[in-house]
Specification:
With 765 residues, the chain is an alpha/beta fold. 20% of the residues lie in helices and 26% in strands. The chain has 18 helices and 38 strands. The strands form 9 sheets. It has a 7-stranded parallel β-sheet with strand order 8-11-7-14-16-17-27, with helices on both faces. Strand 37 and strand 38 form a beta hairpin. It is globular, with a radius of gyration of 26 Å. The two termini are 39 Å apart.
Length: 765
């Protein structure tokens, strides 16, 4: 488990959330989440809790409940033997029994980049903005952060029902009018891994990791002037919704984030009356009724709470997404227009650009001896600069070149330093390409892309006396093109429901400055004794809270909007082209990105405030969706928490699900060829709701290929009053194409003032 603890300190690609089977010290008992059908409770019981307890005692006298769930799910969690779980499954009223899974974390110029600085007057600075409560499920909070300053905020909203829990190094006085609530959930974690070692982490809402403070302050941190990391990215730090309140729910620990704890936090957050939920973690790819985050998010959605989740950091591979349920807003990552250049100068006079957040003593103003780590080690993986793999006699006093991969980037520099090296050049390999992520290295170091790395290695291997130095250039803004899709950002297609395009959109997630924990250095390494108020890190963990905060702004401006309406506004106003008309690039390929990479596009909060039209969805719409994907009554009941049977006489279709994007999966003909045979015709229907003034919208359609003909009927929609609804049908006529062919397009409705855009993907498998 130490390896996982180390993973939590990785500040680069913070969270590629993959649910993994939990290792257990106790082979006899495992932790289970038991979903109950409350409508089937016998009349002899007055309380659900008594019925749950009786059901449990019927199979085990010794088993104890870890949590009782009453809001986002109905049921409880406990530890049982395999035989006890089998017996319990057969008891009346048991919908399903799910084994515990472990989730892993997906680990400032943003407000200006998004246009919030110029448009503050557009967003409500009235009391409505400070009535919004954003709940953050993460590693807790560092309440002393300046980003939790309560200055200028009125009393805690009357709607708030939560509390500030006490524990190790944390008491109720740590909360204020900004950080209005803080809770921690550890029963599932401790049931599996044993008691928390309070000498290593606080059994309280206190953040000993940094990740939770960073995400919370990104979403809704107060305005802090003069913020920076060692002088990098200096300026005013502010969250997306600076007047919103923050409620922290600590569910992630050194050993991971456990599904029983996550569900308990979601359950309590709904009870506490949060408006937005932000989860920078995910659970791999499993059916919605088996995924605790998806199940809990469904319950939150039913209560009118928007749930924003990170897409994952498993890009640029296809089918690498987490959190793809259609009631979750799934956020990928893009870059900012800011960079931290650090140049490599070789003895042959050539220069290569890299990035670094190193701040400390500069290298001597001369060329220094240079060695490749693979040639300074007796280990087969010596090039990776892993612990104890370098030979001190071969690296002492030299700059060492290490390859990226396996262990944390910043740890490689620590290994070089421990062996006597005085600097590091970190080279990307093919899996990372040209993507550069800046780190606060412990010694003079810079990271370079694969092409530069290969050229530098060529020099290293061919010169008898290679030399090098590194020049640090500080902070540069105005970098173009920006944004580009981060290579690490997880990609579609959606492997659970191909008809739902994911991610939904992208937001800033590379080199983001936000608040940090005082318990850990900026690298997260135990050897890093530096302490900072702000840190710069990257991941879809960082892009998710941007959207959570922006959703809070929209909720304040439009309190009556549903979670689906808020997401629709964010998606349909997102942009997919730069101001020069070129398409947003993908850093992984250097080519234009596609909707599988960026979803609807890059978030544009100013436009989202007045989207004109929205694609709305109700709870019944989601239930009909579950019928359309052929879920059984018990499977739907896990999500719906009630008896729900699909109408056998009704025709359910995902094509009629009112999502703000279009994904049309088709079957390719047998064999490798395409283009022959009859065309396939698919029809999708959508309904738009007017949230602006009376207006007439006309449609425009674009398709990147003649192989797909797209038509929309009617071609114009006239709205005369607020909340009026009008429907339209899209007909896709597609020629036969080879497997793995994708055609992208776009539908836009415009009245001359608003543009309501939707991405299209037609794919053959």
């Amino acid at each position: 488990m130490q390896g996982f603890g180390l993973l939590l300190t990785v500040l680069g690609l913070c969270l590629a959330f993959v649910a993994v089977a939990v290792e257990r010290s106790d082979e006899e008992r495992k932790t289970y989440i038991v979903h109950m059908a409350t409508s089937q409770m016998p009349e002899s019981f007055q309380e659900h809790a008594h019925w749950y307890d009786s059901s449990l005692k019927s199979v085990s006298e010794s088993a104890e409940m870890l949590y009782k769930y009453s809001n986002v799910v109905h049921g409880f969690s406990t530890r049982l033997t395999a035989e006890e779980a089998r017996l319990l499954q057969g008891r009346p009223g048991i919908l399903s029994i799910a084994e515990e899974t472990r989730y892993e974390l997906h680990t400032t110029r943003t407000p200006e980049f998004l246009g919030l600085d110029k448009s503050a007057d557009l967003f409500p600075e009235s009391e409505s903005a400070s009535e919004v409560i954003i709940g953050v499920l993460d590693t807790g909070v560092w309440p002393e952060s300046k980003s939790f300053d309560e200055t200028g905020l009125g009393p805690v909203p009357n709607s708030w029902k939560g509390e500030c829990e006490t524990g190790t190094n944390f008491n109720s006085s740590n909360c204020n009018r900004k950080l209005i609530g803080a809770r921690f959930f550890s029963k599932g974690y401790e049931a599996t891994l044993g008691p928390i070692d309070e000498s290593k982490e606080s059994k309280s809402p206190r953040d000993d990791d940094g990740h939770g403070t960073h995400t919370a302050t990104t979403a809704a941190g107060s305005v802090v002037a003069g913020a920076s990391l060692f002088g990098f990215a200096e300026g005013t730090a502010r969250g997306m919704a600076t007047r919103a309140r923050i409620a922290a729910y600590k569910v992630c620990w050194i050993g991971g984030c456990f599904s029983t704890d996550i569900l308990a936090a979601l359950d309590k957050a709904v009870e506490d009356n949060v408006d937005i939920l932000s989860l920078s973690l995910g659970g791999g790819m499993s059916d919605y009724y088996r995924d605790s985050v998806a199940v809990g998010a469904f319950g939150a959605m039913e209560k009118g709470i928007l749930v924003s989740c990170s897409a994952g950091n498993a890009g640029p591979s296809s089918f690498s997404l987490s959190n793809v349920a259609p009631w979750i807003t799934t956020v990928g990552a893009g870059t900012l227009d800011r960079d931290f250049p650090a140049f490599v100068t070789l003895g042959n006079g050539k220069n290569y650009s890299g990035v670094s957040l190193y701040k400390g003593n500069d290298l001597p103003g001369k060329l220094l001896s240079f060695v490749y780590a693979g040639n300074a080690s007796n280990m087969p993986n010596g090039n990776l600069c892993m612990t104890n793999t370098l030979i001190p006699e071969k690296v002492a006093g030299k700059i060492v070149m290490c390859d990226r991969g396996v262990n944390p980037r910043v740890q490689k520099g620590s290994v070089v330093k421990a062996a006597g090296g005085i600097g590091m050049v970190l080279a990307n390999t093919a899996s990372n390409g040209e993507e550069l992520v800046a780190d606060a290295h412990l010694l003079p170091a810079t990271a370079v892309g694969q092409k530069s790395g290969d050229a530098i290695k060529s020099y290293l291997f061919s010169d008898s006396d290679p030399t090098v130095t590194i020049f640090f250039e500080g902070t540069k803004v105005g970098i173009q093109p920006s944004p580009v899709v981060a290579a690490f950002s997880s990609r579609g297609p959606n492997s659970i429901t191909a008809e739902i395009l994911k991610p939904d959109l992208i937001a800033p997630g590379v080199n983001i400055l936000a608040g940090w924990s005082g318990a850990v250095g900026p690298t997260g390494l135990p050897t890093d004794k530096r302490r900072v108020d702000f840190n710069i890190i990257s991941g879809t963990s960082m892009s998710c809270p941007h959207v959570s905060g922006l959703a809070g702004l929209l909720k304040a401006a439009h309190p009556d909007w549903s979670p689906a309406a808020i997401r629709s506004a964010l998606m349909t106003t997102s942009y997919t082209n730069y101001k020069n008309g070129q398409k947003i690039q993908d850093l992984a390929t250097g080519k234009p990105s596609t909707p599988f990479d960026h979803g609807a596009g890059h978030v544009d909060p100013v436009s989202a405030l007045e989207p004109g039209l929205v694609y709305d969805l109700t709870v019944d719409d989601y239930l009909n969706f579950l019928c359309a994907i052929k879920y059984s009554a018990p499977e739907i009941s896990v999500l719906a928490k009630k008896n729900f049977t699909c109408d056998a006489d009704k025709k359910y279709s995902v094509a009629d699900f009112n999502y703000p994007s279009f994904s049309v999966p088709l079957e390719a003909p047998l064999g490798s060829g395409g283009g022959g045979g009859a065309s396939t015709v698919v029809k999708h229907t959508r309904t738009l709701t007017n949230v602006g003034s009376a207006s007439t919208y006309k449609v425009s359609i674009s398709s990147e290929s003649e192989s797909v003909k797209i038509s929309v009927e009617p071609g114009s929609l006239s709205f005369s009053e607020l909340n009026e609804k009008k429907s339209y049908t899209v007909t896709f006529t597609a020629a036969s194409m080879p497997s793995n062919t994708n055609v992208f397009g776009r539908i836009e409705w415009s009245d001359g003032k608003h543009v309501v855009g939707s991405p299209i993907v037609v794919s053959w498998t």
